[in-house]
């Protein structure tokens, strides 16, 4: 009996030491981090992130990982110093090689050439968190992560799964009419009845779906499919009084537009 108690104590103590130490992913990535990130706050937060990822055994940790991952993507994007402009013909291949090294060294983050204010952007890769959550005794975080991945994909790029990027210079075209908008809103409401996990991510998805329904005027689906889902989704959107007017005007626009007008690029 005493031997069993001691064994349990030793295992528990060893696990605590491990969870407090430097995670292996961070150790392997440290040389690259020192090269491209001068801010020590980035190093410390990544170390904490990977420590929690490597020891994730409960839904609340998975929830924390998703929230912290989003913050780290913004921090990594703003702190990254490649040392040269990656957007020229001469440097693009070198930049791509660097991004590939970082993508391998830092699972959960995906480095790419950016546009606008940042030469490099970092996107969230949800796959490692999904894999870690599957080791939990509870499956509730798996359900929440499924909603997130249904909305954003396993890697979160600039356009969600309910909006299609047709060309670089065009606004995204809504997939309204596919059923995905309604599916996401129903799933979020159902999940919230049983759990308070992933509140920030799920609220961002809900608002993104609403924004797409109300203000995106370019579509991929047929007019009839758009009208069908537009009618069905109304009660799920939780519209304000002002948004209700926009919603009604949107229905009129779709009803009066031709198929070609609904599918036109640009605008």
What does this structure look like?
The protein is mainly α and 267 residues long. The chain has 2 domains: 132 residues, no CATH class; 109 residues. The chain has 12 helices and 4 strands. A two-stranded antiparallel ribbon has the order 1-2.
Key features of this structure:
mainly alpha, 267 residues, 2 domains, two-stranded antiparallel ribbon
In short:
With about 270 residues, the protein is mainly alpha-helical. It has helices at about 1-20, 25-35, 40-55, 60-80, 90-105, 125-135, 140-150, 180-195, 200-215, 225-235, 240-255, 260-265, and strands spanning about 110-115, 120-125, 165, 175. Strands 1-2 form a two-stranded antiparallel sheet. Strands 3-4 form a two-stranded antiparallel ribbon.
Low-confidence stretches: 5-19
**Major sheet:** 2 strands, antiparallel
Task: Give the overall form.
Answer: flat
Taking all Cα atoms into account, the compactness measure Rg is 22 Å
Strand content: 5-15%
Overall number of domains: 2
- Give the terminus-to-terminus CA distance: 74 Å
- The H-and-E topology, N to C, reads as HHHHHEEHHEEHHHHH
Number of helices: 12
Task: Give the class from helix and strand content and strand pairing.
Answer: mainly alpha
Strand runs, count: 4
Describe the strand arrangement of the main beta sheet, using strand numbers.
1-2
| Average predicted confidence as pLDDT | 89
Helical content stands at: 55-70%
């Amino acid at each position: 009996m005493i031997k069993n108690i001691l064994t349990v104590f030793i295992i528990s103590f060893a696990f605590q030491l491990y969870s407090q130490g430097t995670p292996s992913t961070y150790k392997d990535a440290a040389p690259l981090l020192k090269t491209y990130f001068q801010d020590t706050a980035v190093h410390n937060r990544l170390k904490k992130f990977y420590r929690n990822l490597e020891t994730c055994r409960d839904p609340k940790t998975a929830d924390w990982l998703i929230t912290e991952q989003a913050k780290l993507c913004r921090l990594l994007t703003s702190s990254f110093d490649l040392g040269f402009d990656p957007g020229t013909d001469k440097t693009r291949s070198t930049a791509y090689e660097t991004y590939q090294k970082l993508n391998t060294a830092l699972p959960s983050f995906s480095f790419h050439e950016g546009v606008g204010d940042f030469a490099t952007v970092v996107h969230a890769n949800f796959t490692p968190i999904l894999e870690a959550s599957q080791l939990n005794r509870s499956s509730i975080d798996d359900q929440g992560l499924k909603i997130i991945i249904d909305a954003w994909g396993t890697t979160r790029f600039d356009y969600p799964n309910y909006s299609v990027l047709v060309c670089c210079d065009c606004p995204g075209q809504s997939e309204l009419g596919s059923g995905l908008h309604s599916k996401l809103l129903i799933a979020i409401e159902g999940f919230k009845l049983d759990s308070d996990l992933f509140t920030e991510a799920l609220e961002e998805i809900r608002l993104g779906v609403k924004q797409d329904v109300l203000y995106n005027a370019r579509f991929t689906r047929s007019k009839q499919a758009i009208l069908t889902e537009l009618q069905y989704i109304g009660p799920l959107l939780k519209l304000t009084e002002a948004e209700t007017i926009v919603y009604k005007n949107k229905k009129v626009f779709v009803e009066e537009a031709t198929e070609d007008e609904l599918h036109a690029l640009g605008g």
